[in-house]
Amino acid sequence: MKKVGNHNSISRKLFFSVALTLCISLTSFSQTAAPAAAPVAPAAVATASGGDPVKGKELFNANCAACHKLDAKATGPMLRGVAAKHEMAWIYKWVHNSSDMIKSGDAAAVKLFEENNKSVMTAFPQLATTDIDNIIAYTSEPKAEAPAATVGGPVVDKAQEGSGVTNSVILGALALVMAMLVVMLVLVNNVLRKVAKANGIEVAPKETTMPIWKAFAKNQFLVLVSAIFLLLTGAYLVYGFLMQVGVDQNYEPIQPIHYSHRIHAGSNGINCKYCHSAARVSKHSNIPSLNVCMNCHKNIAEVSDTTATPDHSKAFYDGEIQKLYKAVGWDASTQSYTGKTEPVKWVRIHNLPDFVYFNHSQHVNVAGVECQTCHGPVQTYEVMKQFSPLTMGWCIDCHRKTEVKMEGNDYYTKIHEQLSKKYGVEKLTAAQMGGLECGKCHY
């Protein structure tokens, strides 16, 4: 009988060719999507008072937002629809000098003063009547309705929605094609076997070979080289593991109240040392007390719509501000403290061993090191994390590279002159100034 090769190779090639073609075509088809229509921005509409709400918004944010909100009571009353409560002539007088109106005994002025905890409104004589008209036009705009959110609903990809083809349809089609190919492969294999049997053709049996592990075990050189390689690899991995003990780089815990450095230090440009004031004068940097937060959030009960991100909605940020209010015992409706406070259990992120001495004031105040040098670009962090490894090697490397700033720093003048002559350099590094001495950082 004739002996021929294995016919299964032909069927395998046919199977993989058809499957590859179908996968490429279906993937290309699934990526086709209808372009989304660009949103149309609504035009600014002037109100009946003749003011411009766009200019009014700018004036409101610059002069009124510190004490007033459009839709909630703050230090002063909410201002949306205020034009319907008072005549424009009365509003002009009130904005220009509210104290005179209260002293004159104006009934509406006295009532407003009493209703708002006798808070005296700042006089704005510099605002023209046209400026006040613009502010009133802004406060007279109807409140924008928030889009209804589907709680727990699936997120629909607009590109797929426009194409009319979903992932389920594509996966179902691929599964059907794969099943058909498997059936075809079985049928072709059976037909080839029957044809070979009818023509007296004997399919060559598969030759038996020595298992690879037996061949490897018989080669003593390969066994020796592999054993040495495994020992060296194991030692390297154990060393690397032990060197990472106590190193918490990129540690990013969830805090009880979400605080976004991206918003505060980034978008709002708040200086790091405004909140962490102890870093300038103390060994330790402080966790800001909640009264520092309330310096701003007494009048900021919600964030702007532009603050929201795909991961954190406006409602999420507003809810975190309410957690702050609950912790300090602040009642936003009455603009007063209730006296009921709750401690906030912050999770510590940066933590050095007890035998390591590090002084924030020496680095921040004397050396003028920027906070981002050690803590990374915190102005971009949504959740604070440990940026640097804080290892001994990292500190030593910084001392070897960082030059001592002498501008306006009389403390190091004498020793700098002596050591710069000794080392023959114009500017000394922290290491040359003794920054590598063991006693500088260890007790």
Automatic annotation (TrEMBL):
Residues 51-143 form the Cytochrome c domain. Pfam families: Cytochrom_C (PF00034), Cytochrom_CIII (PF02085). GO terms for molecular function: electron transfer activity; heme binding; metal ion binding. SUPFAM superfamilies: Cytochrome c (SSF46626), Multiheme cytochromes (SSF48695). InterPro entries: Cyt_c-like_dom, Cyt_c-like_dom_sf, Cyt_c_III_dom, Multihaem_cyt_sf. The chain crosses the membrane at residues 169-188, 221-242. Keywords: Electron transport, Heme, Iron, Membrane, Metal-binding, Signal, Transmembrane, Transmembrane helix, Transport. Residues 1-33 form the signal peptide. This is C-type cytochrome. It comes from Flavobacterium restrictum.
